[in-house]
Write a structure and sequence with these properties.
alpha/beta
Amino acid sequence: MTFASPDLLYFLLGLPLLLALRFWAARQAGQIVGTMTAPRLRSQLVMGVSAWRSWSIFSLQLLALACFIVAIAQPRWGEDKTIQRESGRNVIIAIDTSRSMLSNDITPDRLTRARLAAQDVLGTLKTDRVGLIAFAGNAYLQAPLTTDHEAVIEAIQSLDFTSVPRGGSEIGKALKLAMETFEKSPARNHGLILFSDGGEPNDQIREYAQQAAKKNILILTVGVGTEAGSLIPDPDPERQGDYVRDRSGNVVKTKLEGGVLQEIATATRGRYLKLGSQPLAASVVRDLLSALQAQSNEAKQLVKPIERFQWPLSMGVLFLMTAWFLRPSSAPRRLAPALALSLLVWSESPASAETHPMRHFVASIFNRDSVDPHEAEEALKAGNHKLAADLFGKLLKEEPAEHLRYRYAQALGYTSHQLKDYDRAVGAFSQALESGETGLQEQAHQGLAHSLYDQGDRALAKQPKFTLKAWRDSVKHFDAALKADPENKALQENRDFVKKRLDELQEKLDQQEQQGDKGEKGEKKKGQKGEKGEEGEDGEEDGEEDGQGKGDKDRSRKESLGKQKGEKKEEELPEGQLQAGNEGEPKDEEGKQSEEAGDAENEADDATGFSRNEARAFLRTYADDQKKAQIVRPRDPAVNGKDW
């Protein structure tokens, strides 16, 4: 016999302690009775349960507790060998990762919307085998056909424009790779869901579409973008604010070209859909894929241990029932609930035990960790941000409905911002930004803009480059919020304030780099003069002093940057700060809690010398450097010369 949770058996060591306490209590009670009553009158004065009955009841209760502990540890005995059969359809999701998918004519950009829509489609393919293809100037299989949808989701989330190192949008290569992948499956019908902003139709694409139709491959094409189109932001961090240009230096404007996607869908009896700010209609995708043949494949043999928690659980219930009968009571005994529980346990078969394990039974009785949303809302209205943040965080872990998840994330972002936990606020607002509601998106953009500004302001003294990136992103989110509400003057003032500080910081960093370059040149010249002996020892000393002076100046420049941050530490954004929906006035005690939480995040660790916020900032900077290395790496030339 084995146990699924053998560590829980250590609770059995507490039973001897309970037995010892019972002996001690009985002895103490006997001594007290002996001092207060005479032996000849004790039988008349002392009323209660006899000693043998009392010890019998206690022993039965102790045995029942031992049985319950063993049941919770989930004893297993024997094996159940089954052949797992998988039935479903073969569906491949192909996503265009060319640089034109970075266009933000749909919020936040085409590629992000395509990734989110692909994850929504996976929700309708619960029992199907799903694969993933990323294509641009070439096509690569990111995930083979599998029922492990979590792995496919991870592959989707990792897609970006660097996934394919060749520019362009070769839809034909994606069709060819999908057909090659489907040929390895014995099914007769297959489905391909293709996300792209289109391209120019050509004979090769038409030929592959006809071949797909002959092989019974139904293709659902999804056009990502708008016919009006927009410019493509340059992803290179060295050219922030610039746009992708062609070989002649002209700015490239991309728009949705759905003609080729419509041709593919028509040739394969599929359908062409447009993807905007709203998610895809799940019913449309389900109806199209219902025409695909479902096949049944025999998988490998599965060996599962048989749960035997019913045995100790039933024995424990039996011991409790016996102790209950032994206890004298004038009230009528209600046997039905106990018998029902016993019959339920004994009627559980090994197969049903697998679907209803003991931990689910115990959790349904003893679980008290569920959070009441009203309690979280009341904490937010009362200004108790610390409690509200904890409650909304737990609500998000319970995986609520989609419309509630985004609102909980918005509330978590607001409370985290009030607690000065800007890292958590940025993550929560980013999650709320995925909502399809325009109003919620606007609030999330505002929350991200404020949180990113405060996050960068905190790191200004030690990591000005990180601050530069955070403030750039803050301005972008202010612009997105203003696009939805252009008449908001307070929001415009906030945006101008952050942009002004961003420009000042950029100018100072540029000056430091220029002065650093001049200092290096001056040191080289003085070193050369020292080698020639023109200045002698005095020249060397002067050179050393000058070198130290340069170092002192560099340090003074960094200190001045930190002092400036310190001087502006109390300088906040103008009116129009992040507001809660029904927030009450914050209490003084809550303000103290917020300051203490902020101080804990900024307190330096003795072992590392960095605070939590500083460590997170360094890790983000390292991740940005790695991302930059991928961006600037050499790309294969596009076939048609269009690297977007």
